[in-house]
Amino acid sequence: AIYASSCVQIHTRNQIIALFTKRKANPEIIMAKETKKSKKAAAADTGNTQPSGDDANTSRQIVVHAQYIKDLSFENPNAPRVLIEGASQPDVEITVNVGAQLLGDNQYEVTLNLAAKATANDTALFLVDLTYAGLVSPQGTPDDEINALIMIEAPRLLFPFARAIISDCTRDGGFMPLNIQPVDFVAVYQHNLAQQAAAQTNN
Q1: Phi/psi class of residue 140: alpha, beta or left (left: φ > 0; alpha: ψ in -120 to 50)?
Q2: What is the pTM of this model?
C-alpha cells in the first residue's frame, strides 16, 4: 500500500565530516522532461512517428509542487562539557524512514525522516531528527508503478535538501557537519515490501 512506511537503520563510524556541497537554490522538479523532448525531436528528424520503448520510459515523470520541513529537533544534552573536553571518534546511528499519503487529485505528500544519534564512549553527543516533506504528482505512470515511483524517486529528490539541513543543524550545534552518505532508496523500498510480506505470512 502507498501509505506504508519503511525504516532502515544504518550504523556508521567516523561519519562526522565536513560538507563541501551547497543546496541548490532551485531544484529540478520534472524528471526526464528534456530527454523526452530530444527523443521526439529525433523521431521528427528521421520521419519516425511511432513511439519507441525509450519514449514510453521517459514519459514517466514526477513533479514536485512544494517541499518543506515538517518537523525538526536537535538535542545537545551534554554541552558544553563535550565541546570543552572534546570527544573521541563518534559512533553515529542513522535511521531512515519513508512514508507517503494520497491527498487527492493525483497528489501525494511524501515524508522523508532522517534521524541521527552520535555517541562517544557511551556519552551522547547530539541527537537530530528531521521530517522533510514534499508534495508530488506522478505523470505518465501506470497505476501499478506509482507506488515504486513515489516511494523511491520522490525521497531521492528530497534527500539532498534533508541532508543539507542535518549538516547545518550539527554544525550550528557546535560539531563538525554530519554528511549523511547517499541512501539506496530501492533497498529501503524492498525492505518495506519484505516487511509487508512477512506480516501477511504471519497473519
Answers
A1: left
A2: 0.72
